[in-house]
Amino acid sequence: MRDRNRREPSIYAAWERFIRGDDHVSGVRPEVAISWHRCRERYRVDPHLTEAPIAIAEIDHTPDHDAVFAELGFRAAALAHDVSVAGGVVTITDGTGRILASWGDQVTVSRAEQANLAPWFCWSESAAGTNGMGMALEAHGPVLVRGAEHWCEAFHNWVCAGVAVRDVVNRDPIAVLNISCWRSQLPPLAVSWLGNAATKTQCLLRRRARDSGAELVAAYTLARAGTTAALAALDTAGKVVIADETASVLLGVPAAVPALDPTVRWTPGVPGLTGAARYASRQAARNPDWVGSTQIFTYLTDEPTPITLRPVFRTGQLIGTLVEFSASDEAHLPAAADETPRAPQDVPRSRRVVATRENRTVLLRLAEVAFAESEGNDVWLSTDQGRLRAASSSLDSLGDELSDAGFLRVHRRYVVNLGRVREVERRRGGELFLVMADADDQEDGMVPVSRRNAPAVRRALEI
Questions:
Q1: Residues in domain HTH LytTR-type (predicted)?
Q2: Which tens digits make up the pLDDT trace of 46-87?
Q3: Which domain does 302 fall in, by range?
Q4: Does 350 lie in the same domain as 280?
Q5: Based on the domain organization, do 316 and 407 belong to the same domain?
Q6: DSSP secondary structure string, 133-182?
Q7: Cα 67-195-260 angle, rounded to 5 deg
Q8: Among 302, 317, 337, residue at a domain's last position
């Protein structure tokens, strides 16, 4: 491994400093530095690990998963010859990082087996640190890990590239296609091969998701004929596929317009509903007969509204939930299913928000972040250290990650730290603005609140 590190002295030197506790990583790609932070701070992976552990976690494979594995297996087999000629190995993992199959050069395959780069071993970041398969599970798009960029020193002689195939509805990873080479460069077209394979497989999933959306609309239509209560149909990610006129007003979404394409479905402007729907999906996956009820604060109302959640299946696979706005004697959802943010003082102090400044990774305490703002394809953080680009590329994912940490989505472009709100300004027409504490500029420190989110903001701030 020293041969590889001699060719990458600056990265190896940064790796050595980082494993000793230095937080300032210079000369390392931001996505790699962020992965190192996860390995050291969140997963606590031993950087001197010499082989990947055997896979323990198992997930239930749905028909969609099996279709993905079959499609990727076909594509990996087609790549195997070219990868073998380049002295590489192609692997497929499931959504936990467990390798399901491998193909490639027999000499390299034998060497890979010494590090457990082989079926039934786990290569998630939490198990084996920074590597192509593990990073792909954490990222949205192809990733490349070279030499000393690997978290574990024993893997520094490897170069690998991976891409995850994700569920088009809930964005959870289903599988990873990866190419690895020992002490040599990847084939020139490796990254484009991977991207093309993932894109074509996602198209298969998108067609199946549209079919599931049509089945969900059919279930909604059948249920609509048998009830006078407001009704909506949500997919497994908690997004609205269709809602009647009353439910659309309560949820703040268009009425009676089915969204079969998973990329154009609506996120309800209702705190707690998405969490309740996801909880219902988990329960229904274990018990198909499960039906539950709870109360939520709906759009533009100040009192909680009772709802009943009924799972919908297609050929034995859960495809969504019908939400009926009425009381029920069914099982009540626990309070943990509610997404109401906790007070900042209840959050563990070890949690950090990761940002980047030029070629440095900045670890921010939650209290240092006033708010996050989406701008184009980037998310920017207003912090005590100035305006920094967030490591997360999605305001939705950042909001979900911090929803239990005293942060609240107040606008389609803003997520706010409730502990940093100093004043609430009401303007003509009823518009609300949050004035953030310690802002250097009064205008820069003002965050608009959308009408949809105003009731949630008032409840969270108890005003």
A1: 353-463
A2: 999 999 999 986 666 777 888 899 999 888 888 888 888 889
A3: 227-337
A4: no
A5: no
A6: HHHHHHSSS-EEEEGGGSSSGGGTTEEEEEEEEE-TTT--EEEEEEEEEE
A7: 55
A8: 337
